[in-house]
Amino acid sequence: MVNPAEEVPTASVRDLPGDPVLLDVREDDEWAAGHAPVAKHIPLGELPARLDELAELPDDQPLYVVCRTGGRSARATMWLNANGWDAVNVAGGMKSWQTEGRELVGDRPGAEPEVL
Q: Less crowded by CB within 10 Å, the N or C end of the chain?
């Protein structure tokens, strides 16, 4: 749980680099509906058991963490930073990603990508 007294490093979608190292911590159905094409998907509840997968990601910039609106990703960011990662929460999550006109891809045949 995020302690409100602690600061969570945060960046807006607008301030992200063009090709961010992005971790999406939403659930499988949310991911399938629509996600950033550059994102790595690990649901929040699976993150501790799948940390080794983050080692495959580039480490020359922060790990930007995203969920639907920013709550789960804030918790993940705090946890990752406490465990030695340089993580930054994406303010507004995938809802802001979509609002900013960033590319979305989906895994549902015949359906337009959307943020659930």
A: N
pLDDT for 18 equals: 83
- Indicate which residues carry an active-site annotation: 67
Phi, psi of 67 (to 5 degrees): -135, -150
12/108: higher pLDDT: 12
Residue 6 is predicted with a pLDDT of: 62
Specify the length of the chain in residues: 116
Q: Looking up tokens 């949310």, which residue turns up?
A: 30
Predicted local distance difference test score (pLDDT) of residue 58 = 87
DSSP state of 78: H
Q: Does residue 72 carry a pLDDT above 90?
A: yes
Alpha helices in the chain (DSSP H): 28-33, 71-82, 93-99
Specify the CATH number for 10-99; select among 3.50.90.10, 3.40.250.10, 3.40.190.10, 3.40.50.720. 3.40.250.10
